[in-house]
Amino acid sequence: MANPPVANSPLQDFVGRHERLFVLTGAGCSTNSGIPDYRDSHGNWKRTQPVNFQAFMNEESTRQRYWARSLIGWRRFGQARPNDAHHALARLEAGGRCEMLLTQNVDRLHQSAGHRQVIDLHGRLDLVRCMGCGAKTPRSEFQDTLGRMNAEWLALDAADAPDGDADLEHANFSLFNVPACEACGGILKPDVVFFGENVPRDIVATAQDHLSQADAMLIVGSSLMVYSGFRFVQAAANRKIPIAAVNLGRTRADDLLTLKVEERCEAALAFLL
């Protein structure tokens, strides 16, 4: 006698019942690509908080520390590749069931996996932007500039930290040379939203417009502790559309969820592959 068919998982059933999913992803989606996340299963910080926008803009010492650590961290971050969670969500879109994917990640791995409709809520780490004239430079080119100006630092190594950072400590960061914009002499910053910095209004408005067209929301790999992402879950709850989440541990929206799956993202989404 043939084996009976395997019943659909609750998540597979949820996805199958909706045609216009608004997907929100976070750091848990990229951990299997070798990019560490920020928080533990309780939603607490695993390490000191990321650099603050005001400190970066106002303090040369903060910029020296940031770019020195980034010089080391980018070497592996820039080589990260999509994992099965990214590929599964790309397949979801290819099947016509994804209204929009909004990611809190800055690694562009959804795009590398072939996902076409993506909003980078917090920007993208593969670009560097001048805060004076707005000129943008590929991060790979800026890496070469940093290396030429700080050749002795290239021999250092450190453990990976989230978003291309590295746990480089006990170094004299005051000796690190930070280049200025070649066009105007302005401060150069990764083209991402730092803590203490606002997400551009047009990005928020575009995401909200897509959410208004969705018939359900799927959260993948986010504790939602940062309000910039959590507000979209609040908006979905206000619209009374179903909300499912895949996350290891607590989320800020646990009391708003229709379904919660506590599994690794790539395992929970394997049915899409």
UniProtKB/TrEMBL annotation:
Report residues binding Zn(2+): C130, C133, C181, C184
The EC number on file is: 2.3.1.286
> Which part of the chain is the Deacetylase sirtuin-type domain?
1-273
Quote the catalytic residue positions: H122
Q: Name one GO molecular function term.
A: NAD+ binding
What HAMAP family does this protein's entry cite? Sirtuin_ClassII (MF_01967)
Q: What is this protein called?
A: NAD-dependent protein deacetylase
